[in-house]
Structures are given as structure tokens and as C-alpha cells.
Design brief:
Length: about 260
Amino acid sequence: MPEKRVQGGGPNASQAAVRYHDSIADGWDARYREGSFLRRARFFETQVMPCVAVGGRWLDAGCGSGYFSRLLAACGGEVIGVDASMQMVDAARRHAAQIASSKAPQFVAVSSVERLPFAAATFDGCICLSVIEYVDNPRACFHELARVLVPGGVLVLSLPHRFAPLRLAQRLAYAAMKPVVPASWAFSVLSRNAVTRKELARTLAEYGLELRKTFNFDPAIPAPLLRLFPAALNFAIAVKRKQPGDEEPIVQVFEQCKR
């Protein structure tokens, strides 16, 4: 049997994920102040962002409450965030309204990140963090992300690892002890799409995206042990292949970056 590169979410899986995120939108941004969310945000800021020069137009596909959109805007990007959860978009707009700057990110509700309302080659960069795991058709999402990037543009994404022990444990615990585990663990059964690094590289290549660097993040497993166990979340940086004669893009991935 051929190896599956990206799992499918099943019919209407993303609709259930949207309803879930609608229900928790009001308190979503506050999660980044503590615990695993804070550790993930700091990991993104200290390990991933130093590898990308932010400039020009950026898309935050699946922006949630706009936390990472605001980080990009603070680094000089002109940012548009989109999300299928109207409640998340409303929360993102409220947070952005507190920024006293003309470069505050803008937010738009979309039916799905599998169908983006932008022309081809609109953005110099795109982030798509912990989003593809919830969609019904992940390949459509990869296609759209590649389509809206300029040649040479940068895609930064995160996806769970197919064999991550933490994710497996959360899924089993939620299924077996649903009444007593935190309600927020519902994400573990709504998250349907996961990849290995090889699968991700192969899938990106199908859509004209070259994987440049990956990062392993796990909120529970110490970094030294990640050589033995798959991390819960893989961050990745990819670049859209340029055509001969294309000028250098505004956004570039540094060959040497902070590790």
C-alpha cells in the first residue's frame, strides 16, 4: 500500500472545528499568557521568526484571535488575517483596534482556508499555524497557500506529527475520560490531519514549495528527548519556487539562522 502523505479529515470535519473555535474565541488570546500556549508562542518568536525576514504583504491563514498576525505586523509586515470562525475574527479585530498604528493587521472572515479570496501571487509571505490539521481537504489548502504566494515567497506552517506520543495520549484520554478531562481537549479528536517530515516535504513539493527548515516543538517532552520521540508539533519554513528571470523577493529565508 502506498504511503499516505497527508491524512484526510473526513466530511464536514472542518465545520465541527469551526464551531469548536467559535465557542472558545473570547478567551483564546489569553491562552498565550501561560502554559503550553505561552511556550509555543515563545518558541515561534525565538526559534522560527529569526529565520524569516518579514516585509511586504503577509497572510495569516487561520488567524484565530490574531496573536501571530500582530507579531508579524510588529516586525514590519502588512498583514491580513483570515479565519472561518467569525467569532475568532471578531476577537482579532477587537485586539487589533487597541494597536495605535496604521500598520495594525486587518481581518477577514472566509468560508474556508481551502478557498482564499485573493488573486494569485498576492503575498510575499504566509503563516498557517495549527490550521491544516482541521480542514476537510488539506491538499486544497496547500494548493491555495502556494497559489497566493509570489514566486520566492515564504510559507511558515505548523502541523502535528503523525506519531507524536503526546497527541496520541491526549486523543485516548479524551475518548476514554471525556467527562473529566478539560473541554479544551476536544481539539484532539477534531485534529484529523498529521504528517511526518518526509510526507510534508513531498506534499509541499507537489505544490511548488521547497521545504527549507523544520523545527520540533513539544510542550511536554524535554528537547533532548525529541531525538527519540516525535514532537507534538512540527514547524516548517518553505519557499515557493521561482521561475527563471524572477527578481529576488522581498521576503527571504536566511540560510544561517538562530537555532
